[in-house]
Amino acid sequence: SYTSQSQLRPSESDAPLPELPTGPLPLTKDWRDEKVVTPVEDQGKDCKASWAFSAAGVIESNYAIREGKDKLVTLSAQNLIDCVKEYGDNSCKGGSTEDALHFIDDYGIMKETDYPYEGRDGASCEFDESKSFTKIDKYRKIPSGSEQQLKKVVGLQGPVVANIHATEKFISYDYGVFYDEECSSVSSNLNYSVLVVGYDIVGNQEIWILKNSMGSDWGINGYMRLARNKKNHCGIATAAFLPVW
């Protein structure tokens, strides 16, 4: 079972990316069409847990791609909020997607039905390894700043969790293609996490399709269209990760 005395291994994220599936890179891709993306969740206003929801989401989708879409299940963000704080994170005050993936690498993650979301802070870790849904073998970071590599991984492998700079305009996004001149791609400004579930071309604009955790009333049914190939806008490719089994 999980204990706070565990010794963290060095980060695995800087190792080379795994060999991707062969075949031509699709012009557009939306993993929702493959029925391997869970419904949009709502973290609420009192818990800054985008890092936990997006980390759970990247496991959900890539597991279903690997094992079959009938294996798609919502995983527990609360599990990560309560337990990853032992790695130095601040639960509902903010955390690290990389630390979340490190926890899932070390111990696994439970299903939402076994460890439901409460949006609470300061709770003790109630992780039960016997109810762990899956563990990952490792995780990898997309080469920092490379939207082409991000496209290749999303197009051929599956959704990716990305840390971004969320401005006030981002939080109030409603529709359309999002571009904000105040958005930074510098790693020190990254303050939010999303799941990149695809990419598309809308009119003559290239976009990323982002799944958020602010409920289905936010954005376009809970999703955003972010400007793509605009100099790594909002840092979409600055700190993006994928799990590996």
Automatic annotation (TrEMBL):
This is Peptidase C1 domain containing protein. Residues 1-10 have a biased composition (Polar residues). Gene3D superfamilies: Cysteine proteinases. Residues 25-244 form the Peptidase C1A papain C-terminal domain. GO terms for molecular function: cysteine-type peptidase activity. GO terms for biological process: proteolysis. Belongs to the peptidase C1 family. SUPFAM superfamilies: Cysteine proteinases. Keywords: Disulfide bond. The keyword Disulfide bond applies. It comes from the Eukaryota. The keyword Ubl conjugation does not apply. Signal peptide: none annotated.
